[in-house]
Amino acid sequence: MNYFSSNFKLGILGGGQLGKMLLNDTRKFDIHTSVLDASPEAPCKIACNEFHLGDLMDFDAVYNFGKTVDVLTFEIENVNTNALEALEKEGVKVYPSSKTLRTIQNKATQKLFYVDNGIPTADFSRFAYTNQIEDAVDNGGLKLPFVWKSTQFGYDGNGVKVVRKIEDLEGLPNVECITETMIPFKNELAVIVVRNPNGNVATYPVVEMEFHPEANQVEYVICPARISPEVAKKATDIALKVSKAYNHVGLLAVEMFQTNNDDILVNEVAPRPHNSGHQTIEASYTSQFEQHLRAILNLPLGRTDNKTAGVMVNLVGAEGYTGNVIYKNIEKIMAMPGVTPHIYGKRETRPFRKMGHVTIISESIEDARKIAEDVKNAIQVISE
Amino acid sequence: MNYFSSNFKLGILGGGQLGKMLLNDTRKFDIHTSVLDASPEAPCKIACNEFHLGDLMDFDAVYNFGKTVDVLTFEIENVNTNALEALEKEGVKVYPSSKTLRTIQNKATQKLFYVDNGIPTADFSRFAYTNQIEDAVDNGGLKLPFVWKSTQFGYDGNGVKVVRKIEDLEGLPNVECITETMIPFKNELAVIVVRNPNGNVATYPVVEMEFHPEANQVEYVICPARISPEVAKKATDIALKVSKAYNHVGLLAVEMFQTNNDDILVNEVAPRPHNSGHQTIEASYTSQFEQHLRAILNLPLGRTDNKTAGVMVNLVGAEGYTGNVIYKNIEKIMAMPGVTPHIYGKRETRPFRKMGHVTIISESIEDARKIAEDVKNAIQVISE
């Protein structure tokens, strides 16, 4: 198929910030793009050829949209997989596939998939409803502390809570959920694996994530991770094993824990461009967004190694501020060497809302990390 | 001024490919953009917030458009400078200024400017009309061979011709023009200088250009240029002198000849993102497009050094093909390491039409140059 012609059409489910960054890279290849999103104010609107309004969980909306494109991908996991399956049967290329997405969409199914495929992951229990957890604790079937996770619709720290005492369950939605054993770990790591339909596979360098202790959102993504070559190899091998098990097409971001005795446990995966890969825009030979396009269009994969070291800082709304956003000191951080802000264009900030990210690149990871801290200390996402 | 808010509006005169790449980088800062172009099919349409139809040489069109924005820039030199001047008087920030642009727009004025400012440039003569040249040759006032240049509206090899014998003048438009002494040179070099209203200045590394012998279009841009540090310093110093003389704001691409005895002569300048800076997207710490935005918004300038070596290959229509374009072997070049195509999305190709460019990056300039030749030998811009 000739992708570089106006007859070809790429469909993207979801019109958010990830989709917008993906669309930016479609410009390199002059791919004709069509986006489906439920919001008439979706960020993607500025960067696509066609925009369609529709609910991503609605069968008809996704199916009818999918029928108008040649290749269909998504920037968010919460889409109607039955519609994807129906489209696949009718010859639309859906990447990642409905099968891959189904297993990932539900965290309980995802965990069972790891167990079935011999992939190391933290022990867990599955509950049909959150209100069944208290009984399990009372009768000794479940020990505190643990991590509560909604099986669906959780992302960026939503749908996840550390439960140290039974009262911490209060206020949680009464939904299907899992509880995971708390693993004491040294590091949270991630590896992005990319695979095209031809079966070509490549991995990005291991990144290290530092989370904000309260908001449970990534604060720094550090690439390459400051770990031993042995641990990096182990993490990469496990990520490849996960990738092989899913037999996915496109990007697969594999998030992992490095335990205190250097075991690697898979936490969760995302079959799309991911927060742990934003630094690839500036630091890698091929950005994760270009790479996803190469993969789903069955083009040759690009180099995945680093041009420079890179650190990514999430820009989240400061506590105590809600309203029209101001990026205080943004000019100050732009004067620091190797610093590029990415502002997502949301008008209103609120505590911990993800408003953008900043990439810091440098010849040395130590310098990049140091500048990243200066960035973090200087910039404030506040309201007018 | 708070650029990172929806109240601010950046205006761009010209909706072509350079503008589109500039617009892509406005997304990092979430700048609200408005574009004026005469074509309803301008490439920029996909990437701007607002699009206005209008002739860039028409006073009213430019003036009325300019009144709706806070900062006004352009991606093409052929715009109405009287309108820019009127806008400046009414407080619109026009970068580069009407004064800078006026001097550059007319090649005769540009050459006189170099002479007035002690900037080395090839000797030249000015003619009100092309048909006056033959007399000058006949009466011994002008010697063959020379380079004929239209003083206006020339770019990408249009409006330029090497005249070796008097018959070569046939078919040239009868317009205001200059004739330049042919300078035997080793290299064509270029330096991009950036300057913001605060007076901060930075220079990109010297690049070396190889031109296609027939089409007079750049075939390879090589960064860093394979020249001695002394020559690089001389070229950079002269580019800075030109920049200082213009007192410009934004990018200034300074094209130069390195003569056989290592003198540097300024050929011409462009006050905007330039073909000689496309490799900065992948190879530099800060792309020329982001840098132009930083400059015209009076933000701190970004690093201008290289992350990697880079070579840029122009994709121009092959001879003998006119019609719906096909990028033959594009998948083959995408399998080469460090290769990213940039397809401009023009539907029809014709001989020597600029259809896109390809960037090749690598740790070593020798490797990048070698791969660039493989790219050049493999890809063919042909028609269906």
UniProtKB/TrEMBL annotation, chains A, B:
Reactions mediated catalytically: 5-amino-1-(5-phospho-beta-D-ribosyl)imidazole + hydrogencarbonate + ATP = 5-carboxyamino-1-(5-phospho-D-ribosyl)imidazole + ADP + phosphate + 2 H(+)
Q: Which UniProt keywords apply?
A: ATP-binding, Decarboxylase, Ligase, Lyase, Nucleotide-binding, Purine biosynthesis
Keyword Ligase listed? The answer is: yes
Q: Which GO terms describe its biological process?
A: 'de novo' IMP biosynthetic process
List the EC numbers from the record: 6.3.4.18
From the record, give the transmembrane residue ranges: none
In the UniProt record, does the keyword Lyase occur? Answer: yes
From the UniProt record, give the pathway where this protein acts. Answer: Purine metabolism; IMP biosynthesis via de novo pathway; 5-amino-1-(5-phospho-D-ribosyl)imidazole-4-carboxylate from 5-amino-1-(5-phospho-D-ribosyl)imidazole (N5-CAIR route): step 1/2
Q: Which GO terms describe its molecular function?
A: 5-(carboxyamino)imidazole ribonucleotide synthase activity; ATP binding; metal ion binding; phosphoribosylaminoimidazole carboxylase activity
What is one GO cellular-component annotation here?
Answer: cytosol
Matches recorded under PROSITE patterns: ATP_GRASP
InterPro entries attached to this UniProt entry: ATP-grasp, ATP-grasp_carboxylate-amine, ATP_grasp_subdomain_1, PreATP-grasp_dom_sf, PurK, PurK_C, PurT/PurK_preATP-grasp, Rudment_hybrid_motif
Q: Where, by residue number, does ATP bind?
A: K107, K149, E180, T181, M182, I183, E188, N267, E268
ATP-grasp domain span: 111-297
- Record's signal peptide: none
Q: Summarize the subunit comment.
A: Homodimer.
Q: What does this protein do?
A: Catalyzes the ATP-dependent conversion of 5-aminoimidazole ribonucleotide (AIR) and HCO(3)(-) to N5-carboxyaminoimidazole ribonucleotide (N5-CAIR). Catalyzes the ATP-dependent conversion of 5-aminoimidazole ribonucleotide (AIR) and HCO(3)- to N5-carboxyaminoimidazole ribonucleotide (N5-CAIR).
**What family is reported?**
Belongs to the PurK/PurT family.
User: Which HAMAP family does the entry mention?
Assistant: PurK
User: Could you identify this protein by its name?
Assistant: N5-carboxyaminoimidazole ribonucleotide synthase
Q: What is the lineage of its organism?
A: Bacteria, Pseudomonadati, Bacteroidota, Flavobacteriia, Flavobacteriales
